[in-house]
Amino acid sequence: MSNAVISRTYSTSQLGALFALRVLIGWHFLYEGLVKVWNPNWSARGYLADSAGWFAGMFSSMAANPGLMNVLDFLNMWGLVLVGLGLLLGGLTRWAAISGMLLLAMYYLSHPPLIGVQYALPSEGSYLWVNKNLIEAVALLVILLFPTSHLWGLDRFFTSRKAA
Amino acid sequence: MSDSHTTGNNSGFGRRELLKGLAGLPLLGLFGAGAWAKSAADADKQEQILRELNIEAQVPPLPDMSGDPLRIGIVGFGIRGEQLLRALGFATNEWKTSMAEAAAANKNDTRLATFQEQVRDSNLNIRITGVCDVFDVHANRAMEAGTADGKAPQRFRTFEDMIASPEIDAVVIATPDHWHAPMAIAAANAGKHVYVEKCMTHKVGETIALREAVKQSGIVFQVGHQHRQTQSFLTAMDAIRKNVLGHVSLIQTNTNRNDDNGAWQYDIHQDASPQTIDWQQFLGNAPEVSFNAEHFFRWRKWWPYGSGLSGDLLTHDYDRINCLLQMGIPDSVMASGGVYTHRDGREVPDVFQVIMEFPNYTTGTSQEQGKEQGLTFMYSSTLGNQYNRGTLLMGHDATMELGNTLFIYPDARSTRYKNMLEEGLLTPDNPIYAYNPASSKGGDAITSPTAAYFANKGLLYTYRDGKRIDSTHLHMREWLAGIRQNKPELVSCGIEEGFQEAMAAHMATISYRLGKRIEWDKTNERLSNVTEEELRSINMA
Lengths: 164, 541
Hints:
The complex is a heterodimer. Chain A is 61% helix and 1% strand. By secondary structure, chain A is mainly α. In chain A, α2 (12-38) runs antiparallel to α5, α2 (12-38) packs across α7 (132-145) and α6 (93-110) packs antiparallel against α7. Chain A is globular, with a radius of gyration of 18 Å. Chain B is an alpha/beta fold. Chain B has 18 helices and 20 strands. Chain B has an 11-stranded mixed β-sheet, with helices on both faces. In chain B, strands 4-3-2-5-6-7 form a 6-stranded parallel β-sheet, with helices on both faces. In chain B, α8 (177-189) packs parallel to α9 (204-217) and α10 (231-241) crosses α13. Chain B is globular, with a radius of gyration of 28 Å. Chain B starts with a strand and ends with a helix. The A-B interface holds A 6-12, 15, 19, 23, 26-27, 30-31, 34, 38-43, 45-47, 49-50, 57, 60-61, 64, 66, 85, 88-90, 120-122, 150-154, 156-157, 159, 161, 163-164 and B 1, 3-11, 17, 20-25, 27-28, 31, 35, 39, 107-108, 110, 438-444, 450-451, 453-454, 456-457, 466-467. β1 (10-11) of chain A pairs antiparallel with β1 (4-5) of chain B.
């Protein structure tokens, strides 16, 4: 962690707000992951097959490859669980935030809310270009740039106290 | 800022330190408790419904195909004949080239890959040794497709020559309907196994004669209703067996097509002429007319060779339901319709409605005995609109919507699910069971609304262990397995099922053509209110 970041000073309420953002996103990831781990029939196949936008071809060909889907399903569900644990407990939070952003970017790119595009699964809200995946990804960027885990989290035990 | 936090401010590794480091832990505990409670609640609900329904599909094991290769002859290499040969693993070069081009243009087009995978995985162990088609172009294409290891199948000029050949063990019949029974009877009498397309027969008398011939011969006989292999149907069968729907009083099936190809306006080949087509042989038992390419390629439009919607599409819908309910031949049939969308001189109706009555049939009941009995099967079709109307089995306790996917919705006034509806475990607008191969790895009960939406996209193939498979291939494989094991009972659409399908369809055709309700005498197995003269007047005796 760079000194510029580590030496940042937060008020208690600022720290509290950032901590809340971190653990809530962690909670969301962890539960999304566990739901998939618990369902032996879960697969992202249908979701990917329904892709649209710039990378629709790539996502559809992933869906058409059963061997690759097994790997992707495994990586996705356990990726969600690990990112969730990392954010919630504040361990390896930097990596959790980066990985989480990558996952969210994939979800966004496979189902971008473009004009004139309709998906088999209707969204629960109304979106134009910006959707909750994109917002959550940017929220993780905030968590990456305004870390709290070295203060309130497991990372505290591993952060050099000479840093400041 | 007095009230500030940095790592640098911390000193020592005391209790305060530990608490800050483990700040997320109580939340994880809360999460664990919440997730546990949610999971237990979901599992409890799922288990209650599963205990109530207990639905499962029964998938037959892959048959053993070892031994000498079976020698197959194909009669008729038109549109369907070509598809059947492909399902057996033999495709024309033209098809392979066009599929390779389609795959290159669109990565999602996996038809060629699916075909190749099927050939590789199933190893049917057959050879195509004979080809018979009265049109030279079709016969040559069939010979090219059937060529393996540099050896082309022999072309037989007549069907009689083919079944007389010692080089033929079994025949696939994909001719116009009026040839099905004469050929199948001759093949059965010669001890050759038969796979015949629907409609199994074209007339009443030959339907009875064919059943007799097949029973006497002991051959393995299969009618081409490949949907019997569809996984969702196997699942639906189990649901019916467990009386999930309660008493079914009405079944709605439909055909909606809105294009010329769907109305049998098939291409007329440029090389078609009296020189390239053996016209007399094509006519067979049909009334004498001079060479007519329209009759030859678009035979489904004319009574002497086919029966339009009745033999082509009603048969599929009837058999779909008969395979689930085994309700057999209806007590009575009424049909009505007309030529309303394709007034091109055709004889068969293009808008056609059929009502079949089964007054003594019941799928079971959840109410007091004797209250419910009897079922109406309704087939409704038009060739001038392709709005998708689902196949519905409407029972007192639930409604089943059937396709390549399968949904079962509880009825708001169900007796069986009364308590579960009251407790909110079930709601009428959420399926209590959804089989949806496209979005999950297999069948699962209580799929999410997500899965339901994907399912509605519909796919034409069936799935086995998550793999997409051509159901015609499975149907023909089942027939070949029956031959290998010398077990005529192994096929799912044998002579009894074919007899019921053909007779039910004929009753609809006769009703339309004679303009009256047609009744079936179950005891004596004959049409009770139609005379021989009446049948002869429409060439259906």
